[in-house]
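Budget justification, computational time. The allocation requested in the original proposal was used primarily to generate structure tokens for proteins on the priority list. As evidence of use, we reproduce two of the resulting records. The first is shown immediately below.
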Amino acid sequence: MKAVVSVIGKDMTGILARVSQECAQQNANVLEVSQTLLQDMFAMIMLIDIEHLHMPLSDFAAHMERVGKDSGLVIHVMHEDIFHAMHKI
């Protein structure tokens, strides 16, 4: 099982490290990362493996939202099936 993590916020040192660390602590493996800077705004999408997550995905998503708020970021976590369904034509 996989999930998509999106991160948006003002650029600062350590965003990728912070989000990756939180994933690792909950046993979510980062598979792919795409990130960019738009002037001073940071945007990132991660594909993570959630097969061995230490908590339910809904709890992980809520945890990551709190991490984002504490860091001045907006972080969303979505199961890949929902992501694909939303983007199906």
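The second record produced under the same allocation is shown here.
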Amino acid sequence: MADCLFCKIARGEIPASVVYEDETVFAFRDIHPKAPVHVLVIPRHHVATLSDADDPALLGLLMDRVRHIADSVLRLDAGYRVQFNVREGGGQEVFHLHAHILGGW
């Protein structure tokens, strides 16, 4: 989606503190962190919300990358939380599917 903030970040049109990227996902630090470590993991392909995600393979890959980033890239050995906000009523502010990795306490 051309005007999506997270799509622009993944394409490199808007600067971000990149943590991890591959052909399917892109991870970067949240600009308004809610924890000492707060990283967003997004699919490169635009999907507005978790409720709109109809590809089980994509969802599985996204969760696998969340695990990899938290354990191997961020090294959150003490533990971490993974959060999805879905739609406005669920606190979603940017309508591009994304997982929050929160940790570092």
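A brief technical remark on that second record: The chain is about 25% helix and 25% strand.
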